[in-house]
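Render Guanylate kinase in 3D.
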Amino acid sequence: MVLAGPSGVGKSSVVHELRKLYPDLWFSVSATTREQRPGERDGVDYRFVTADEFDRMIEKDDLLEWAEIHRGTHRSGTPRTPIEERLTTGRPALVEVDLQGARNLRKAMPEALLVFISPPSWEALVERLVGRGTESPEVVERRLRTAKEELAAQDEFDEVVVNTDLRSTAEQLLKLMLDKSSSHQLENHE
């Protein structure tokens, strides 16, 4: 299952809640060239790599998708091998990416279930982004412009889940993921 949605919609919070509901949930750890932030753990939050290592991953086709982030300040991508290994066990895997990443994953893995996390309203999204107080007004404005583009693309997804409440959103995602996993296992046994 691939999750995407605009900045501020609560994807990380929903994933955290989903992992509480389903502790065995396997979550893809993205590779990134950006600097590690305080409190982040390599191999848990991200796999921190050098630009040269990232280039080698691209050359060896080790990434299902990758992109330049925030006007080329760094690159992030989804490592191929861990996901393929997980899927061969027949158990679900979760990937969280942006719109571009979701589009690229659709091409790389057409069988993936793409789920768009949507805010209850535009006003709620603006309130969440501004309310964070972690970004400058310029960054908030850029994220809101990007959010408009992302919201316009939600029809490209298999499912749209409105994040009105963390618990119910996580429960909806869990049901979608387990339904997809069950149907995939049935297909493989026929």
